[in-house]
Amino acid sequence: MIQFGDVTIRPYQACDRDAVRNLCCDTGFLGQPIDPVFEDREIFADYLTEYYTDIEPESSFVVLHDGAVKGYLLGSRRPTRQQIHSFFMNIRLFLKGMSRYRSYRKESRDFIGWILRNSWREVPAAPRRTAHFHFNLLPEVQSVGGTRALLGAYFDYLRAAGEKAVYGQVVTYEGRRGSRLFERYGFQILERREITKYRRIHPEPVFLTTVLKQLDGEEKSGFRNVT
Fold this sequence. Notes:
By secondary structure, the chain is an alpha+beta fold. 36% of the residues lie in helices and 23% in strands.
């Protein structure tokens, strides 16, 4: 566990599952609730969090503020297992979504249409045998130092497990998480592609960006664990 000011960073626990899923949905539309874009929170949360919370929970961390989960980092150092799980999960979620399709609003149907027609084209290239992560922080825990501590906790975990590199695929645009932010943390920008589903509802281009960081040869983060 790491204490950084009034923020606590600790490994994910099973009791955090509902909070992580709710946070995922509450911020799923560029930091805003996903509901106007896609109304089925169960499927949305399953797609983005299920593997990490249910299959490889030991590789994830949560950020606590005032005793509540205000952020998370969901990670995996077992990419083959994650890819196999995602293959079968996607089939299950597709069938579940199709069974509910007629009850969805037009916005949700449009979202499903984008997934089927375009989403696979807009995912940037990423290393297939490398540890990865994605993270999500509410505004009250988005300090530079807190973010560095969260990433540092995960990188130290990966180094202790013998991992040599890590990548992330993150949503970036001019007003949020620009590419330069990740360069400050020692990441290399591998590729970015525009996510076209936002063109009609957001005033500036939104990208999915793959970033890569080499872990070997670096020292530990230096953040002190507390009990």
